[in-house]
Specification:
mainly alpha; 130 residues; 6 helices
Length: 130
């Protein structure tokens, strides 16, 4: 997986959102905390965790290390752009979820749809087409 491209896509999605008249970080976060997005994210994360539990310890550690190496710069990038730690945490969590799924070989239509949102420079929220 091209982690630089993923980070750039997330940055571009954030720039587009921030440039949209009427965009509110708080409203966006409220939308992510509601159905259908939040339960879908939680289900995808739980499925990924089950897959990771079946991987050897060395593989899990390598995946965690790769995820941390992506999450930190994404978090800093979002903080620099908007100064909101909650948004930075959510978008860096998305980056980690996408990367960990790819590295673990975990197939999820919902995570694929999450990735497509960022590739289209849109912040994901609501129902994602899986």
């Amino acid at each position: 997986m091209d982690t630089e491209k993923l980070a750039l896509d997330i940055a571009q999605a954030l720039r587009h959102a921030m440039a949209t008249p009427g965009f509110s970080v708080d409203d966006y976060l409220d939308g992510r905390d509601a159905a259908p997005f939040d339960p879908a994210w939680s289900n995808a994360h739980a499925g990924l965790q089950k897959t990771l539990e079946q991987r050897p310890e060395t593989t899990r550690r390598a995946i965690e290390k790769g995820s941390a190496a992506l999450r930190e710069p994404v978090f800093k990038l979002v903080m620099g752009a908007c100064g909101n730690p909650d948004l930075a945490a959510r978008l860096s969590d998305d980056a980690g979820l996408i990367l960990e799924a790819a590295l673990a070989g975990f197939s999820s239509g919902w995570i694929d749809a999450l990735r497509r949102c960022y590739a289209s420079h849109r912040l994901p929220c609501g129902a994602l087409d899986a």
